[in-house]
Amino acid sequence: MKYRITTESGIFLNDRFIYKGTAVQDWDIQLFGGIMMPYSYSKGYRLLITCCNNPHTDFTGYNFFDQLSELLNKPSEKLEIILNSELNYLTVKNQDEILSVWNETKEQIVDNFGTGEDIVAVMEEREMALKNISDEMMDSLLHHICILSFGKRKKSQMNIPSVLSIENQVLVEPIRMNGKQENPVIYTGEGRLRDKSQAKKQYNELLQGVIENAKFNYAYDLSIEYSYRADSLFMEKAVTKIKEQASEKYYYEQTILFEKLKEEEHE
């Protein structure tokens, strides 16, 4: 099945946009059952995800960032994921291939962008993520939305990087709010910061003088709504909405739309 993923994001300060962006990419998603799990006698699923194109953004003048992102994402363009029957544990089967592509890609990054301190730091962070890619997938928002669509399990969990608090994580636990046979299937969840005191300190130091009468008041809300055709395992559409706020005057909003494509639309 082929899907178009449209991500719209915005950061608001004093009720005005200080950042607004849209990114669009296409995925090909295949799921196979009856797969033997590694080191186990139980059966699970094989999930193949192919990124058909690099995310297209509505920015202009960001060629440096776009070119670097394209190279950083190249090793994981094709993922072969083995999932258990509950869809709450996974391993990336083609990790060796991914790391091999990464070793080639590192040379391209150095050739194009040099070995400055910032570039080296980005490369080291990406290499660590690829070496731990099985763990990274469960906390990747787009991949999590995809995986959760098949199992419709009652509860899930992921750690998402905070947008408003530098180097902070948000623990989110989406809970299914209705029966898994209902249509649409709806999840909602609130997020908890790993280090709330750090976020409050950053807010007070950087923004207290800019925002009047708006004390730090952190909140994180997520909702996912899946729509299906009758008797189909694959979603027709998934709409995810996120709001992260540091205060009533400083907040981030994101909408992610998975929408199944007709064959002619993809081509």
CATH topology: Lipovitellin-phosvitin complex, beta-sheet shell regions
Question: Could you name the ranges where pLDDT drops below 50 across 5 or more consecutive residues?
Answer: none
Q: What would you call the shape? A: globular
- Mean pLDDT, as a whole number? 89
What's the main sheet like? 13 strands, antiparallel
The total tally of domains equals: 1
CATH architecture heading:
Roll
SSE string: EEEEHEEHHHHEEEEHEEEH
Strand content: 35-45%
Q: What's the helix count?
A: 7
Q: Helicity range of the residues? A: 25-40%
| CATH class term | Mainly Beta
Secondary structure: number of strands: 13
Radius of gyration: 20 Å
What is the terminal-to-terminal distance? Answer: 13 Å
Helix/strand structural class: alpha+beta
Model description:
The protein has one domain (2-266): Lipovitellin-phosvitin complex, beta-sheet shell regions. The chain is built from seven helices and 13 strands. It is an alpha+beta fold and 267 residues long. Strand 11 and strand 12 (235-247) form a beta hairpin.
Produce the secondary structure layout.
Elements: E1 2-13, E2 16-36, E3 43-51, E4 56-57, H1 63-73, E5 78-83, E6 90-92, H2 95-113, H3 117-131, H4 133-138, H5 141-151, E7 158-161, E8 169-172, E9 175-176, E10 185-193, H6 196-206, E11 219-228, E12 235-247, E13 250-260, H7 263-266
Antiparallel strand pairs: 1-2, 1-13, 2-3, 2-4, 3-5, 5-6, 7-8, 8-10, 9-10, 10-11, 11-12, 12-13
Helix pairs in contact: 2-3
